[in-house]
Amino acid sequence: MASPTPAPVKKVPIHLQSAQNRLYIKRGHVVNHDGVQHADVYIEDGTVRYVGSGADFVVPGGCRTIDATGLLVIPGGIDPHTHFQLEFGGTVSVDDFYKGTKAAVAGGTTTIMDFVLPKKGESLLEAYDTWRSRADPMVVCDYGLHVGITWWSKSVREEMRTLCRERGVNSFKCFMAYKGLYQLNDSELYEVFETCKELGAVAMVHAENGDIIAKNVTKLLADGVTGPEGHELSRTEEVEAEATNRACVIAHQTKTPLYVTRVTSKLAAEQLSQAKRRGVVVYGETLASSLGCTLTNVRPQSLAYYVTSPPIRKDPETPRHLLKFLALDDLQTTGSDNCTFNRNQKELGLKDFSKIPNGVNGVEDRMSVVWEKGVQTGLIDAQRFVAITSTNAAKIFNLYPRKGRIAPGSDADLVIWNPKAVRTISASTHHQACDFNIFEGMKCHGVPEFVIVRGRVCLENEHVRVAEGQGSFLETPVYPTFVYDALNGRVHSEEDADDKQARNGLQHLELHHKPGYDNDMHDPYPLPEKYIPGPALSVISGDSQVSTPHSILGHRPDGAKNMQESTFSISEELDKSEVRSCIRVRAPPGGKSSGFW
């Protein structure tokens, strides 16, 4: 009798094969959202096992060591807004889940969240299965999914319930724009929000007044405004701000937590700020494209390449305004809304701006752009950078502290970040599939030296080394503590503090103090003592083995070492008087602190 055919073995590239599964990072400045700690980090089996003094830890034999002296060790970035392989406007975005996640890793992002967008009338579950079948074999980092509610019925409500209970989804996005394609009316929004609250999910919106936009488009085209300049004219800041306020009102009426995606204007951000002060539980996301670009100096013939919705704005002060809202916690996250099309795809709408496929790049450059525009200019500090590029998204979508934090028990998604290194963004060197880059020529301080994904060193010496399918799907459990505690009036000391422990301003970056290990802040959402991430309900589990090629720095014979005092300061290049003019200064005992601006 013939023996049964053996099951196929998944081949792992040679650079990801290793008998070793241990990695030790020494002498770095570990930056979490609530504290900076001069510490060593030990990783084993894809999980952080130790953070603290090297003098108190014996490094195991056969362990690769990376020297992070003078560098920051930060949680891997979480991009809460991508659109890989998306059909839109009669074409398909060119970054698939392999190219898109590879580009993400190249820039320091180790987790992405994409959007399932069903066609009108399509089953949400079938659309979800389609996205999983595209992503699971291709992703090189972990990913989660939001699901778009593009039409409404009782069957949609039931499928939302199934997605929450069985498929690992806790967030649903509604569109107030794209009339005739995705747009819901206010009554439908109300019912979707009620359902989200009932399920313990987070309601999300794309906030633009689709009815007004449709009227504006018709009028502009009739008046002969057919070029790409018509796009922003049809979707002014006021149109975004009105929808933002309306979404906040509906969320407040239904007592539902709300997440407003891709806030691109000062007016819309002001609506969020006012809503928060009225007691609305609302979170706001802005984009790398709106922080790194304006349309002020874009040539008219190039405007098509920048088309996205809501638009990148013309006002040159918009990036600074948005960064101020990020610093003050009126906006909480930064995404990319990465939805890339090549030049020839964008040019489909050169004679009718309403036919230009919407979307731009950003998943690879998001971290560097936010650092350059925020930290390098003195508007935020490294802790707030970690919060808005990683931790806040992890908290809102219930991935924290598995993601978004460097602590024992957390996934070993880390970036060793060089804040003094400079790179120039260019389509000629980026890892994305698109043939242009909206940040072309931008010089950015802040570059990832190493990117570690679940314990594997995936970026080193500017070389990305990844394999298709090495990432895994992340289930996002319902009732995220961070969100629903706020909704139920339970405020943790972290959020209750006057300065929210997000010490904005470079002078609070104590990177040149003597090495110490007692200055990490209390975390109100700690991991259990024996936290071990359990298997997801619908996950195809991947290999968690750590890639540890031979270290170019050599191995350490034992755990003892002399800690080096760091003289590194990222504010050396800035005029201190300029920094003080745009940051909140911590007051001495009995004194008063200056305000922003």
From TrEMBL:
Superkingdom, natural source: Eukaryota
Naturally occurring in which organism (per UniProt): Anopheles atroparvus
Modification type N6-carboxylysine: residues: 173
Record's comment on post-translational modification: Carbamylation allows a single lysine to coordinate two divalent metal cations.
Alphabetized UniProt keyword annotations: Hydrolase, Metal-binding, Zinc
GO cellular component: cytosol
Listed EC numbers: 3.5.2.2
Gene3D superfamilies in the record: Metal-dependent hydrolases, Urease, subunit C, domain 1
Name of the molecule in the record: dihydropyrimidinase
PANTHER family: COLLAPSIN RESPONSE MEDIATOR PROTEIN, HYDRANTOINASE/DIHYDROPYRIMIDINASE FAMILY MEMBER
